[in-house]
Amino acid sequence: MPEPDDLPEPGGDDVDAMMDALVAPPALDVELVEIAALVYDDKNANVGDVGSHVASLRELGQHRPAVVQRGTNKIIAGNTMTKAAELLGWTHINVLWVDDDDRTAIRRAIIDNEVGRKSKRNDDVLRTLLEEVGDEPLPGLDDRTVAKLMADMEKDKPAEPVYPIAPEMNESYSYVLVVATNDVDRAWLETNFRVRRERSYKSAKVGESRVITVTRLQAEWDDAPPAFMEKGG
User: Fold this and answer.
1) Are residues 148 and 166 in the same domain?
2) Within this chain, do residues 213 and 147 fall inside the same structural domain, yes or no?
């Protein structure tokens, strides 16, 4: 970023130039460089997955430059990517030159690794994206991880709502409605009446309920009486 002394004095035509200097970073110095001229960082704390990088470069090519310290040619960020490119037989790679002293170069390497590690994966969004791209393998995601993601999605899907009773001509009902007003009551209803996702054939609405005929209720209670019936309640 520009130093304060480099900024134009405020006022008149200089205002726009000053604002541009404040909000726009300097242009990146990216150059295609021979890999043989670069120096791997022997103190790189990040152990990358070379195989995934190889697969990514083979499919997509290079879409971010390696960050290299000017003067020493030491790779600050992108060691694993550069090694993958070398394994693929590439002779050159895109490099972003930075004028870091040694201390800044070390700080940049640590920050680049650790900031990336702060990222968290949104599995729900990832599942949606995986469905869009199909079954083709993705570098960085092994088959076991993908299978678990998709299995978890199926497990988390709510059960398909059922139609509790079949419609009949000239139907009419007498009914008792039991309402749970708190979590304890809800749990009790779910245990004793097996509440489920149901829908009405008269509308598209879906809800957690249990609609049951008297005949069916009597049969179920004869077979397995709910807890409150066993207590004589």
Assistant:
1) no
2) no
Backbone dihedral angles phi then psi of residue 4, each to the nearest 5 degrees = -55, -35
- Which residue from 201, 218, 200, 217 is spatially nearest to 209, judged by alpha carbons? 200
Domain with 28, as residue range(s), is 4-117
Report the number of distinct structural domains present in the chain: 3
Q: How far is CA 5 from CA 13, 23, 28, 158, 204, in A?
A: 18, 16, 21, 62, 67
Tokens read off for 170: 């000239």
Instruction: Check whether residue 89 and residue 136 sit in a common domain.
Output: no
Q: pLDDT for 110-149, tens place per residue? A: 999 898 888 887 878 888 888 888 777 888 877 787 778 7
Do the Cβ atoms of 121 and 94 come closer than 8 Å? no
Q: Token match 């693929």: residue?
A: 88
Task: Indicate if 165 and 193 belong to the same structural domain.
Answer: yes
pTM, 2 dp: 0.56
Does residue 112 sit in the same domain as residue 32? yes
Q: Are 226 and 192 in contact (CB under 8 A)?
A: yes
Outline where the chain has alpha helix (H): 14-23, 50-60, 79-87, 102-117, 123-133, 143-156, 183-193, 214-223, 227-230
